[in-house]
Amino acid sequence: MSLKTEILKLLKESDGYLSGQELCNRFGVSRTAVWKAIRQLGEEGYEIEAVRNKGYHFIGSCDIMTKTEIESCIKGKFGREVEYHEIIDSTNIRAKRLAEEGASSGTLVLADLQEAGRGRRGRTWVSPSGNNIFMSLILRPDILPSSASMITLVAALAVYDGIKNLTGLAAGIKWPNDIVANGKKLCGILTEMSAELEGIHYVVVGIGINVNMEEFPEEVRQTATSLFLETGEKVGRSRLVAAVMEAFEQYYEEFISQGDLSGLISVYNKNMVNAGKEVRVLDRSGDYIGKALGINEKGELLVEVEPGKVRRVISGEVSVRGIYGYV
């Protein structure tokens, strides 16, 4: 982390004032270096009060999305290394390039504006500037390639938790990886992998969250929503990124230690909006209707098509819809 980021993190964590001398001693730098860092933070939009003989005090910030801000919010291992872009074609494309170049597990790529984002089956993702989160996390799990699809469900749990912990909104998970509120989509997740038969080179988890959107284009208005529209309040995007990363680390470690989702089944099913509901499974070999019972340890959706007869639905191969709509 840069000196600027370290100072910002310390100021945020302090209840009172921190003297310039304290900061100098803590980081082994000159008073001039501290003053320069404080001035740069002020130019980036942070409110930092400077009082003679007392020191510096962090007052607050608006919805700032910068490398400095994101790194100052991160608490765990995931997202400690951040690459931030004002504009990018796709965070997943960039993260895959970084992974090929040897970037470590937990590296996070973020962008304010994404011009070529994709969802499942190649669908485009609406990406205006200054409103949403577009991020891709690089992972290097020591698991078989056949188990990688489960990471998508781990990510869904992390986003659900991050949103709830920061905003209080109890949204829901539409199997396998959409976060929804009031029947509309808040977040999409796209997981991509580079692997050989014997092992995984890397996994990239792309997450797009509608955060402060006040309205949507006509063509998606019936199926998309944002945290602002659901809560009536603007959300600090960098803080939400950190909340999701913190939850992701916890769930990911549980998944890796078990080798499957057996330790996460109950929490996933509890937050799954289509559990216990009639669903339509859009299968290549023919659509069918059944009752969604929840997931198993592999992340497959269990659908009861008739009493005593349960079919397992594999994520990525089919789509699941509600009988009367998206959920």
From TrEMBL:
Provenance organism: Lacrimispora saccharolytica (strain ATCC 35040 / DSM 2544 / NRCC 2533 / WM1)
Family listed: Belongs to the biotin--protein ligase family.
Protein role: Acts both as a biotin--[acetyl-CoA-carboxylase] ligase and a repressor.
InterPro entries registered for this protein in UniProt: aa-tRNA-synth_II/BPL/LPL, Bifunct_BirA, Biotin_CoA_COase_ligase, BPL_C, BPL_LPL_catalytic, HTH_11, Transcriptional_repressor_C, WH-like_DNA-bd_sf
CDD domains the record matches: BPL (cd16442)
Gene behind this protein: birA
Lineage: Bacteria, Bacillati, Bacillota, Clostridia, Lachnospirales
GO cellular component terms given for this protein: cytoplasm
SUPFAM superfamilies according to UniProt: C-terminal domain of transcriptional repressors, Class II aaRS and biotin synthetases, Winged helix' DNA-binding domain
Gene Ontology BP annotations: protein lipoylation; regulation of DNA-templated transcription
Keywords per UniProt: ATP-binding, Biotin, DNA-binding, Ligase, Nucleotide-binding, Repressor, Transcription, Transcription regulation
Protein name according to UniProt: Bifunctional ligase/repressor BirA
Domain BPL/LPL catalytic: residue ranges: 67-256
Reactions mediated catalytically: biotin + L-lysyl-[protein] + ATP = N(6)-biotinyl-L-lysyl-[protein] + AMP + diphosphate + H(+)
Record-annotated DNA-binding residue ranges: 20-39
NCBIfam families: birA_ligase
Record EC number: 6.3.4.15
Protein origin, superkingdom: Bacteria
